[in-house]
Amino acid sequence: MTALEGSMGSLPMFTTPNRPLDILAVLPELATYARRATRLHPRRGNPAAEASSVAGPLLWPEDEPWPTCSLPHLVTVRREATAEEQARSPRIRESPAAGLASVNAKFEEIRARFPTDPNVARLASRWYDGQSRIPAVAPERVPAPTIITTQELVPTEHPVPLVPVVQLRTADVPEIPFPEGTDLLQILWCPHLHTTLRGPQQHYYGPAPSIFWRTAARLAHTIAPGPAAGGVGGYVLEQCTVHPEHITEYPDPEDLPEPLQEQIYAWEESLGDESAFDYRNDLSLAPGLKTGGWPYWPETSRSVRCDCGSEMYLLLTLPNGERGADSWNPLEECSQTGEDYNEELDDPTRFSGAREGILIYICHRDPHHEPWIAIE
Ligand SMILES: [Zn+2]
Ligand SMILES: [Zn+2]
């Protein structure tokens, strides 16, 4: 990358085709809901540390250590069952001897149904003969009943290093209001499961992002992330170059006031069943990794407010895959339609671990306030 490209942002390489229809010609009232967004079009590659990227090397302050996570993590543990757990589940309580006795009782039930069958008699002698050869276990060596469960653990001795998610230059994502004096956004996260993040879900289980606003000119140092130390596979992203493209989005119908929503549905009905497109899939939101714009999937509360009272805005949408309706496929890849699957094009970041994706919101008044994370 030349210095000029670095200061002006990445060069676009992908073009979203014109929408099949200009929705403002049909519903001019939608104009007030238009929002700018940037499709990042990630593709596997080797981004420069100065460039916008996914999971790439980063510009980094020389005297700043790589960040680590100190939040409690949800991990799978095998531990001794408590008395209460044993009482709740007879299977946990069962000792090996009791377990064998209950299997034998079932065997005897079956055997009683065929009292004269010589094959069953032969099987029975082998059944008990085999058991008699199992060495007896001294009672004190019978292990206590254990269960496999999840538990929140705070890493103390080995803090978990964060992994990079995106690095974005302001020139690439002009709709994002960077804090004054900054021009580089870095989002890293801890790729373990956490349950204590701020967001709409009562039971959030997902990665814990940290957001850094930087001034690129002050960062002489570059740093490449080491291999992730554990975590959930789908939260450790593949390294990608990004190819930002600026677009305009309109809200999902569920995010619009009812009269407008009804107008959209009535208009869609007038198109008939044979219509090759519809509002939600083709005219409102772009699929794929993007900044700004509107959120997909209106499954959670949309009145997103920071604790300071200010509105929050959608900083980043990281979905499970890039593909939406075929009408959004870049012109450069238009031959890719329908059922064809190509991991390189459809799932370049290899993000998974959410049903649909992760949305990161930040405060309008002060982007340093704690972000709000929705996992859908
Ligand atoms: Zn963590
Ligand atoms: Zn705030």
Describe the structure.
- The chain has 376 residues and is α+β, with helices and mostly antiparallel strands.
- The chain has two domains: 3-70 and 158-375, YwqG-like (Hypothetical protein YwqG fold); 77-152, no CATH class.
- It has helices at 3-8, 23-26, 83-88, 90-93, 96-113, 118-132, 258-271, 279-284, 343-346; strands at residues 35-39, 43-44, 53-54, 58-60, 68-69, 73-80, 146-153, 160-161, 163-169, 184-194, 206-214, 221-223, 240-241, 245-249, 290-292, 312-319, 357-363, 372-375.
- The strands form five sheets. A six-stranded antiparallel sheet has the order 14-1-15-16-17-18, with no helix packed on it.
- β17 and β18 (372-375) form a beta hairpin.
- The longest helix is centred in the N-terminal third of the chain and has 18 residues, at 96-113.
- The chain is globular and about 85 Å long.
- The relative contact order is 0.21.
- Bound molecules: zinc ion (2 copies).
Give the structure's gist in a few sentences:
The protein is α+β, with helices and mostly antiparallel strands. The protein is 20% helix and 24% strand. It has 2 domains: 286 residues, YwqG-like (Hypothetical protein YwqG fold, Roll); 76 residues, no CATH class.
